C-alpha cells in the first residue's frame, strides 16, 4: 500500500519503462539499475525482475488491447505458425504478420468463390498472388475443359450425322441394286414363260402338221386301193 502511494509498485514503475522485443528484456539505464538495487534492499526481493516482468506484461497487454481481435481471428490460418510470444515481436512485425494472414485468408476465400472449389484446395499456398494465379489457372482449365467437351460433342454429332448419311446412301444403293436384280429376275421369268409358251405352240404346230400329213397319206393309200 505504501509503495502504491509512492507510485513505486512494479506495475506503476513499468508505465514509464520501455520493453525491447528484439532483446527480450526491459531497456535499463544506470538510474534504473540503481533504483532496482535500492528497492531490492528495501523490499528484500529482486525488484528488478518484478519491474521487468511488469514491463513485459504491459507490452503484451497493449498488443492484446489493440490487436487482440485480429490475433484471434487469424489464429490457425493454414501455412503459418502461431505468433507465439508477443513480447518478442515489434509492433511493425506483429502488424505485418497479421496482415499476411488476413491477406492469405481473403485470397483463399476469393479463390474458392471464383472457382467454386473448397478453400481447402488452396491451403498449400500462402502468397495471395500465387493463390490468385492458381485460381485463374483452375478457371482457365475448367473453361478449356468445357470447350473441349463441347467440341468433342459437336465432333461426335458430326461423325454420327456423316455415318447416318453414309448408311442411308448405302441402303439406298442396296435397294436400287435389289430393285434392278428383281427386275432382271422378273424379265428372265417372263422370257422363260414366253419361251415355254413358244415351245408348246411349236410342238402343237408340229403335231398338227404330222396329223395332216398322216391324214393325207391315209387318203392317198385309200385312193390307190380303189
Describe the protein's architecture and organization.
The chain has two domains: 2-126, no CATH class; 139-226. The protein has 226 residues and is mainly alpha-helical. The protein has six helices and two strands. A two-stranded antiparallel ribbon has the order 1-2. It is 77% helix and 2% strand. The N and C termini lie far apart (193 Å). Helix 4 runs parallel beside helix 5 (91-115) and helix 5 (91-115) runs parallel beside helix 6 (128-225). The model has no long low-confidence stretch (mean pLDDT 87).
Summarize the structure.
It contains six helices and two strands; from the N terminus they run ααββαααα.
List its salient traits.
single chain, 226 residues, mainly alpha, two-stranded antiparallel ribbon, 6 helices, 2 strands
Task: Itemize the secondary structure elements and their pairings.
Layout: H1 2-6, H2 10-14, E1 19-20, E2 25-26, H3 30-43, H4 47-74, H5 91-115, H6 128-225
Antiparallel strand pairs: 1-2
Helix pairs in contact: 4-5, 5-6
Structural class: mainly alpha
Helix content: over 70%
Order of helices and strands: HHEEHHHH
Biggest beta sheet attributes: 2 strands, antiparallel
Strand order of the largest sheet: 1-2
Query: Quick one: how many beta strands?
Result: 2
Residue runs with pLDDT of under 50 for 5 or more positions: none
End-to-end distance: 193 Å
DSSP summary: helix tally: 6
Choose one word for the global shape: rod-shaped
Whole-number count of domains: 2
Strand content: under 5%
- Mean model confidence by pLDDT: 87
Computed CA radius of gyration, to the nearest angstrom: 57 Å
Amino acid at each position: 500500500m505504501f509503495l502504491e502511494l509512492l507510485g513505486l509498485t512494479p506495475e506503476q514503475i513499468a508505465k514509464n519503462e520501455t520493453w525491447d522485443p528484439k532483446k527480450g528484456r526491459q531497456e535499463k539505464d544506470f538510474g534504473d539499475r540503481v533504483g532496482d538495487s535500492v528497492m531490492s534492499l528495501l523490499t528484500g526481493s529482486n525488484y528488478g525482475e518484478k519491474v521487468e516482468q511488469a514491463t513485459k506484461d504491459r507490452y503484451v497487454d497493449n498488443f492484446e488491447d489493440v490487436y487482440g481481435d485480429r490475433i484471434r481471428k487469424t489464429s490457425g490460418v493454414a501455412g503459418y505458425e502461431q505468433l507465439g510470444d508477443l513480447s518478442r515481436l515489434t509492433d511493425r512485425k506483429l502488424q505485418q504478420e497479421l496482415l499476411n494472414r488476413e491477406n492469405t485468408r481473403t485470397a483463399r476465400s476469393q479463390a474458392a468463390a471464383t472457382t467454386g472449389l473448397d478453400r481447402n484446395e488452396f491451403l498449400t499456398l500462402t502468397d495471395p498472388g500465387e493463390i490468385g494465379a492458381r485460381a485463374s489457372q483452375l478457371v482457365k482449365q475448367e473453361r478449356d475443359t468445357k470447350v473441349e467437351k463441347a467440341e468433342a460433342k459437336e465432333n461426335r454429332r458430326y461423325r454420327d450425322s456423316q455415318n447416318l448419311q453414309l448408311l442411308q446412301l448405302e441402303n439406298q444403293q442396296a435397294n436400287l441394286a435389289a430393285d434392278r436384280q428383281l427386275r432382271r429376275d422378273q424379265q428372265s421369268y417372263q422370257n422363260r414363260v414366253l419361251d415355254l409358251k413358244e415351245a408348246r405352240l411349236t410342238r402343237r404346230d408340229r403335231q398338227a402338221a404330222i396329223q395332216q400329213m398322216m391324214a393325207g397319206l391315209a387318203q392317198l393309200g385309200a385312193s390307190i386301193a380303189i
